[in-house]
Amino acid sequence: MGAYSWSRRSRGAGVVLLAILSGGCVGSAPPKPVVQAAAPAPDASLQPIEFAVNKINIRHGDSVGRSVCGRIFRKEAPIAWETGAINERSREFNDIFLDAARAAGVPVAKSSDTLFTPQSSAVRATYAVGSVISRIAYEGCRGYYEGNPDRYDDGKTTVSVTWEVYSRLEDKIALRIETVGTHVAKDEVKFGFVTFIALAYRDAADQLMRSSTFREAIARKPDAPAIQAAAPVAAEKMTLPAMGNLSGPLSGNIDSVRRAAVTIDLGRGHGSGFFITSDGWVLTNAHVARGSQTVKVILADGRPMFGQVMRVHDARDVALVKVDGAGFSALPLRGAPVTLTEEVYAIGTPIDKKLSGTVTRGIVSQVRTNRRNMTDIQADVAILPGSSGGPLVDGSGNVVGVSYAGVGELNAGVNFFIPIQDALAKLNVSLGGA
Q1: Out of 56-60, 107-111, 223-227, 276-280, which region has the weakest mean confidence (pLDDT)?
Q2: What CA–CA distance (Å, rounded) separates 9 from 142?
């Protein structure tokens, strides 16, 4: 459009909330397309992240800059923020953030490029990142031409963004860091101010992704195993050492049995699991570990450790996790199937992580075929949310099943367990060379 004429009038209009949340005003012209190089492959040394929320922490009436128009007849006007503070899970900011992450090779938990992501291929985020825009500073011309109802903007926009990085594994804020993003519009853009804020935010996000402090914060921890995809169920057969079965009443073995049970801490939720070998192999449910490459395993004594998800069978709902170390208490796995009315005990972490090691008792009610044509153990032993993945043991403490489902929100005495030998078979695992 060329240089501004003396007839262009400036109006100090504030920001419209709808424009920010939708990514622009009605009739706004998008930025000119830029051909970008293909995004690099995700850096395997970094844990996957997701975008949580953006907050604009600016009060109604606060100054966000000034409009300066005209070369001969100079017109200045302050620009005030009209909407007040915003706490919004905006798709606009989400897409900007994830695009910046992909461009920097930072692994992201989900893809916004597809409408549906199969649960078996979804990647669960280890870190959630939120942002707070605490300052917007604009200096340019926000004006109207005579006889034209549309406003045209240009100039420089700066945003100050504070980022918070939350660790789901450790349940704490791992990092707070500030970046300042800038966008300079060389051409006039119809109703461009909101577009300029978005582009300045992208610059701030790019700076975050390049920050060595940020990348160190989301890097794989030294005591966590290397990130790699869980092996498919058709992988090479795995043989693990077998243990001799326990004998005598469970009351005499209960301490060692409870020591073998663990909590799988997912940050926003948790499940249960148990050691099947003393060198760190843990069995749990696929729906507990699904999408995670690394999980936090809390031992019976409260010690947290990291475990690598090694094998998953989604249909049978079982997963195998490896924790580094040795000398763990482990449970023997019984080869013989259960019998009707046999007394069984479930061990796990129902409802709250503080309830780890809870033991409940019941009987085998039925052995039936489920809708996937797989065998389930039905028992009236009580399990609740959080118990998933825990062991079902016999009267001596030998594992006969894995907790995975129940009927109703509260315990209704109709709960289902995966037979332990079927769980191993689906994961292509054998014991003691069998």
Answers
A1: 223-227
A2: 9
Nearest to 159 by CA among 188, 187, 138: 138
Strand-pairing partners, residue 391, are 402
Helices (H), strands (E): how many in the chain?
7, 23
Q: Which two tokens stand for residue 271?
A: 């499940």
Phi/psi-derived region of residue 168, left when phi > 0, alpha when psi is between -120 and 50, beta in every other case: alpha
CATH numbers and ranges of domains, the chain: 9-217 (no CATH), 238-431 (2.40.10.120)
Contact present, 297 and 384 (Cβ < 8 Å): no
Cα gap 388→290, rounded to integer Å? 13
What is the spatial distance between Cα 35 and Cα 26, in angstroms, rounded to a whole number? Answer: 25
What pLDDT digit, counting tens, does each position of 10-47 carry? 333 344 433 333 333 333 444 444 445 667 888 888 98
Q: How far apart are CA 378 and CA 200, in angstroms?
A: 58
Q: Is the pLDDT score of 152 beyond 70?
A: no
CB 399 within 8 A of CB 392: yes
Closest CA to 253 of 245, 241, 263: 245
Residues 355-393 have pLDDT tens digits of: 999 999 999 999 999 988 999 999 999 999 999 999 999
